[in-house]
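quick q for whoever's on today - can somebody do inverse folding on this one?? i tried earlier but teh output was garbage lol. C-alpha cells:
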C-alpha cells in the first residue's frame, strides 16, 4: 500500500503525457463527471461505456498495470459482501454493483497520478472552508511520512521479537508502539507549524501554482468530456 501511494505521488510530478500537462481544474471537472455517471448511470450500457473510457484515460497516462490493479482494486474487496447480499440471480446486478466503485476508483487514480498534489488541492481550497482545505493539503503530504515510519516500526518489532510471547504482552507492545507514533506525529506537526511561521505563514496555505492555466493539452480533456456527454445522452435510457 505504501509503495503504491509513493509511486502514484512520484508519477504525478514526473509524468510527461498530455494528461500531466493539462490543467488541474479541467481534470477535476472531468473526474467529477465520471464520478457522477458512475454513481447515477441507470443503464448498464452507459456504465460500460464510461468504464471503457476511464480505462483509456488510465492506460494512456502510462501507469503500470500492476499499480492500477493495486490502487483501484481495494473498493472491490469492500463491495464484495454488498454484491453477495444484493444478488438477485442475474449477472447484470453484480456486474453493475462492481463497475460503479471500480470506475470511480480508476478515475481517482488517474486524477491523482497525473496531477501534483499542490495543483490538486489548490482549486479544492477555493471551495472548502479554509481550515479544511489547509488540513487536507498538509495531511496528504504527512501521510507518506507517517506510513513509512509505521512500516519501519513494525519491522523493528518483528526483528527484535516484539510479537513473540503471550498475547497480553503483544497487545501491550502494540499499544506502546501506537503511543510512540502519536507522540511522533504531534512533535512533527509542531515542528512543521514552527517552520511555516518562520517562512512567513500568514494563516493561509496557497497551493496556487498553475492549476487553472489552460494549455493545448486541455483539448484532450475537453474531448474526453464531450465523449462522456455524448455517451450519457445516447445511452441514458438504453
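ok took a stab at it. sequence:
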Amino acid at each position: 500500500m505504501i509503495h503504491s501511494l509513493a509511486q502514484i505521488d512520484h508519477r504525478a510530478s514526473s509524468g510527461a503525457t498530455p494528461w500531466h500537462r493539462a490543467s488541474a481544474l479541467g481534470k477535476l471537472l472531468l473526474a467529477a463527471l465520471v464520478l457522477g455517471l458512475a454513481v447515477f448511470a441507470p443503464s448498464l450500457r452507459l456504465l460500460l461505456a464510461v468504464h471503457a473510457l476511464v480505462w483509456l484515460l488510465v492506460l494512456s497516462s502510462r501507469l503500470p498495470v500492476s499499480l492500477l490493479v493495486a490502487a483501484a482494486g481495494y473498493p472491490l474487496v469492500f463491495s464484495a459482501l454488498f454484491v453477495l447480499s444484493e444478488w438477485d440471480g442475474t449477472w447484470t446486478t453484480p456486474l453493475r454493483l462492481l463497475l460503479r466503485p471500480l470506475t470511480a476508483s480508476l478515475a481517482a487514480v488517474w486524477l491523482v497520478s497525473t496531477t501534483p498534489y499542490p495543483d490538486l488541492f489548490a482549486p479544492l481550497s477555493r471551495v472548502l472552508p479554509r481550515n479544511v482545505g489547509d488540513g487536507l493539503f498538509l495531511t496528504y503530504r504527512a501521510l507518506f511520512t507517517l506510513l513509512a515510519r509505521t512500516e519501519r516500526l513494525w519491522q523493528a518489532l518483528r526483528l527484535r521479537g516484539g510479537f513473540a510471547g503471550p498475547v497480553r504482552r503483544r497487545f501491550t507492545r502494540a499499544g506502546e508502539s501506537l503511543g510512540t507514533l502519536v507522540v511522533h506525529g504531534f512533535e512533527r506537526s509542531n515542528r512543521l507549524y514552527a517552520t511555516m511561521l518562520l517562512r512567513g505563514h500568514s494563516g493561509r496555505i496557497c497551493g496556487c501554482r498553475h492549476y487553472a492555466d489552460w494549455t493545448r493539452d486541455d483539448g484532450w480533456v475537453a474531448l474526453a468530456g464531450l465523449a462522456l456527454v455524448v455517451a450519457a445522452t445516447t445511452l441514458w435510457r438504453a
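fwiw The chain has two domains: 2-116+213-235, 123-198. also The radius of gyration is 21 Å. so keep that in mind when u check it
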